[in-house]
């Protein structure tokens, strides 16, 4: 018995809607990026203060805060995205994003240190935090489009 074309179209639309729901559920939420950036600035600022109690408090706040942020994201995700859905381009985009921000922060920090600018690590971390805040959601948007562009039937 053959399925009528309208039923096939409706079934395919349902599969696409479910896939979109799975992809959206597993993307890192927008609030994650400024949260991590802010925690990073707090930590770097505390470390650069050279004040023992401030360094201790900054470390504790950073550790607990980052743990809470990550736990909130992990609890929200109901399923894990498989490599086949993300693909090499998705992995490359994630690695490129992380490597780019790391290179920016480290090179800027060394340059500011060489110029004897006060608080070079903190000042170098500011554009990295901005990059996380602005670039993180852009990365998630790219990954969403990439995952939704994959064929519905994958190889097994």
Describe the protein's architecture and organization.
It contains 5 helices and no strands. The chain has 156 residues and is mostly helical. It has one domain. The radius of gyration is 21 Å and the shape is elongated.
Order of helices and strands: HHHHH
Count of β-strands: 0
Number of helices: 5
Distance between the termini: 27 Å
> Number of domains in the coordinates?
1
Strand content: under 5%
What characteristic shape results from the CA principal axes? elongated
Average of per-residue pLDDT values: 87
Largest sheet: none
| Low-pLDDT segments, ≥5 res | none
Q: Give the C-alpha Rg.
A: 21 Å
Structural class: mainly alpha
Give the proportion of residues in helices: over 70%
Keywords: Membrane, Transmembrane, Transmembrane helix
Transmembrane segments: 26-46, 52-74, 86-110, 122-143
Q: What's the quick description here?
A:
Keywords: Membrane, Transmembrane, Transmembrane helix. By secondary structure, the chain is mostly helical. It has helices spanning 5-26, 32-49, 52-76, 83-114, 120-148.
Main traits of this protein?
elongated; transmembrane helix; mainly alpha; 156 residues; single chain; membrane; transmembrane; 5 helices
């Amino acid at each position: 018995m053959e399925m009528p074309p309208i039923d096939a179209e409706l079934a395919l639309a349902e599969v696409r809607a479910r896939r979109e729901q799975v992809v959206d559920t597993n993307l890192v939420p927008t609030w994650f990026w400024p949260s991590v950036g802010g925690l990073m600035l707090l930590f770097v600022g505390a470390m650069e203060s050279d004040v023992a109690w401030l360094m201790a408090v900054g470390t504790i706040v950073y550790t607990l805060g980052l743990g809470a942020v990550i736990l909130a994201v992990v609890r929200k995700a109901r399923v894990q995205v498989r490599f086949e859905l993300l693909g090499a381009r998705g992995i490359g985009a994630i690695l490129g994003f992380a490597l780019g921000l790391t290179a920016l922060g480290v090179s800027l920090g060394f340059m500011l240190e060489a110029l004897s600018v006060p608080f070079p690590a903190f000042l170098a971390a500011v554009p990295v935090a901005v990059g996380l805040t602005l670039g993180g959601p852009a990365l998630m948007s790219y990954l969403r489009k990439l995952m939704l562009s994959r064929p519905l039937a994958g190889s097994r």
